[in-house]
Every structure is written in C-alpha cells, then in structure tokens.
Amino acid sequence: MRIVILMEDTCGNPLCEYEHGLSVYVETEKHKILVDTGASGKTLKNAEKLGIDLSGVDKRIAGLSGVRLLDGDFRLDEELSVFTGITGRRFWPEGNGNFSMQEGGQRVPDGFCHEQCLVVQGDRNLLVSGCAHNGILNILDTYEEKYGGCPDAVVSGFHMVKKTDYTEQGRDTICRTAEELRRTGAVFYTGHCTGQKAMELMQPIMGGQMVPIRCGTDLLL
C-alpha cells in the first residue's frame, strides 16, 4: 500500500507547495483513492510534480455521474469502507469550542457527526481520519466497535494545534492521549492540525509509533 501526502501544513519536499489543508493519496492493489483535496489547486500541482496521475483515481468526491452521496456507514467493497457516527467524548479537543453550525435557525456547537473515516482492509489495515475533530481516541473506539481491534496504521491529524500556550490541563490531556495511543500498538502518521508543540510533547511517549508527515511524504505500508 502506498500513501502520498499531497497537501499538508508543512513542507517535506522542495518540489511541493504547501498550505493549511490536507490531501492524502492512497494506492492499493485494487484502488487509487484521494482522501480530501486540500484548499486550492496547489494540491493538483503537487500531484503532477510527484508523478501522480489523479485521472486514475477511482474513488473521489467530484461532480461525476458515478458519485453516490453517503449518509452513515458504507462498505464500497471487501477492501474499502467508511464509517461515521462517532459519539464518544474522551479527551474532546479543546479547539472544538471555536466551531459551530446552523441548526433550527440558531448557531449551536458543532458535534462533527458528519465527519467520515476511511478504512482500508487487507494484509495491513489502514485508518484515514482527516482532522479528527471527534478526538482520535473516540475515533479508535468507534473503529474497534465496528471492525474489532485496532488498525495497523493511522493517518490523521489530532486537532491539538493552538496559537497560545497550552494550559497545564491541556498538556496533561495531550500526554495522556499519547500514552493511550502507544498502548494500541499502531503507528500514527500525523501532522496538519496536530501542531508542532503537541507533537513535541507526544514524541517522547510514543517514540517510533508517531511519524510526522509533511507535504510530499511518500510512505509504503
């Protein structure tokens, strides 16, 4: 399985342009998948520079006749599926307080019930979870309920970035999250909205189980 980070907040390849956003290209034996598209056409330029032909992508969101809008969980085939419905609130990210949505004519806190996660199953199981607004531990809890166990690898931001310093409670939450992630045995490829400060707190705890991703990162699982 090949994973290429086409867009991310930091640069890992001088050929690539980078900006706030995320786009992940996943290539398996059966599929070529684009998970998220980033914020602009820079994603397409990066794909071209990295030698990835996005016209070969067979699972994507676009204005195509074959697009099917999903409501809830869905299995595409024996290899690919998506799930949603993450309701846990363990270590709910503090930054979520800045997000709201329109409901019944009023602004209410966003519960992120609309967010989907991609699962790729095969010799190794992969979970791709975007920004993880629901909290990475709650996402993993839902994965375990639906699929059993834990994936071998996870590509996800942790939504921990802050423009100001963390409180003592915030630092403790980040470290406790890292301890729980370490116990899963999975490898977490993270960046984007995790934030450099959070990664510096988590790395000593997780060691090689946390791998930073950058724009242009090319992984083989």
Structure, described:
- The protein has about 220 residues and is of the alpha+beta class.
- It is about 20% helix and about 20% strand.
- The chain is built from four helices and 13 strands.
- A seven-stranded mixed beta sheet has the order 4-5-8-9-10-11-12, covered by helices on one side.
- The chain is globular and about 45 Å long.
Q: What is the makeup of the main sheet? A: 7 strands, mixed
> Can you tell me the overall shape?
globular
State the helical fraction: 10-25%
Total count of strands: 13
**How many separate helices?**
4
What is the N-to-C order of secondary-structure elements (H for helix, E for strand)? EEEHEEEEEEHEHEHEE
Oligomer: single chain
Summarize the structure.
Strands 4-5-8-9-10-11-12 form a 7-stranded mixed beta sheet, covered by helices on one side. Strands 3-2-1-13 form a 4-stranded antiparallel beta sheet. It has a two-stranded antiparallel ribbon with strand order 6-7. With 221 residues, it is an alpha+beta fold. The chain is built from 4 helices and 13 strands.
Write the layout of secondary structure elements.
Elements: E1 2-7, E2 23-27, E3 32-35, H1 42-49, E4 74-75, E5 80-83, E6 100-103, E7 106-109, E8 117-120, E9 126-128, H2 136-147, E10 153-155, H3 168-184, E11 187-190, H4 196-206, E12 210-212, E13 218-220
Parallel strand pairs: 9-10, 10-11, 11-12
Antiparallel strand pairs: 1-2, 1-13, 2-3, 4-5, 5-8, 6-7, 8-9
Helix pairs in contact: 3-4
List the defining traits of the structure above.
221 residues; single chain; alpha+beta; 22% strand; 4 helices; four-stranded antiparallel sheet
